[in-house]
Specification:
The protein is built from 15 helices and 14 strands. The protein is α/β, with parallel strands linked by helices. It has two domains: 214 residues, Glycogen Phosphorylase B (Rossmann fold), CATH 3.40.50.2000; 184 residues, Glycogen Phosphorylase B (Rossmann fold, 3-Layer(aba) Sandwich). Strand 1, helix 1 and strand 2 form a beta-alpha-beta unit. Helix 2 packs across helix 3 and helix 8 packs across helix 13. The chain is globular.
Amino acid sequence: MYRRIALVSEHASPLGCLGGVDSGGQNVYVAQVAKHLAAFGHQVDVFTRRDNAALPEVVEWLPRVRVVHLAAGPARFVAKENMLAYMDEFTEQLLRFSDAEGDYDLLHANFFMSGLVAAEVKRRRGIPFVITFHALGRVRRMHQGGADGFSEERMVIEDRLVAEADRLIAECPQDEEDQVVLYGADRERIRLVPCGFDKSELWPVDKRRARKQLGLSLHERLVLQVGRMVPRKGVDNAVQGFARLVRQHHMAARLLIVGGESDDADPLRTPEIGRLQAIAREEGVADLVTFVGRKSRQQLKYYYSAADVFVTTPWYEPFGITPLEAMACGTPVIGANVGGIKYSVLDGETGYLVPPHDPEALGERLAHVLAHPGLLARFSRRSLERVNHWFTWRRVSAQLAQVYDEVLEGVAAEMPLRTLTEQPHEETVRL
């Protein structure tokens, strides 16, 4: 049965540029889920906050997908940490739009502020909602401490959402465990649905061709980091680990870093780049670390394919889409043994897991894989097999659609836990 679905994503628009402080995995998630739900025949409206006065209220983005820009607060960029005050206005604008267009069958909230909006809509209109948190406040506070810009009110709201949502979407087993242990969530209402990659967007490109496309050396060992330029992403650890590779393991290589607030690597626009450049100088590898700024989705397959190995070592990670994207291009991943990365990367089979904040361990693993081309080739094959079987956006969206049906048909009590689809648990997916 086809549904009218509202995806609520207050700060992460599917139209947003990626790589910036508040643009990243959630933008990709919302865009891809909307696109694939529409391909199944559902009508999808994505509600996000208008952050530019030139944006129209409604953008007909794709067949059966509209992006609706709601006036809530100033029509300019507002850091997500300062956006909670505008959610009452956001809720009223969503209800106004819904009253004019007709009610939705279900709301899928993304992030806690969108969850607050969805909970209010449910209270006032009776429309059920599910939520993907993308990040949990108590987890963030544990890792960021005083640097966390959100108030305690975030955790109070998340407690409410855990109690009131019709289903909680956990993106990986760690996310599920955090919801249960830190928020007292009922496991019976949690459904494990991961993130994915788009086969029409990312695929392996011949390494020589990819490097020629990007103007890179055909013979240099290349390590890649892609992602948001914020401290918690651990890019400083990637630079330091790369420096160990060069200095302690005497291996010639280059580290390519993609991300930032502008298309060129401008430390004024992206202060984190300036901090990382200083670390590279301190480590004596400034001439071997190249910052290239943010890149379009169309360009990313060339960067992933050009690299010999992809590195991502955040402090924590609710899921982490970039490892999947690298694997989809046949590039093995060395990732931090945290959150969703330890779910998507199989240690010793598709790549390696290392502790966060441990440049010595990262340098050692980099040296090992780069010294063994046969191992890299095996990791590449296994990575492609794994992501194409378990982690496509089509599969993910089909799982979400099943969750929606379960909620709307009221059959939750009759469905055994975990029968929505097979899940890639460790004991069943070693390919």
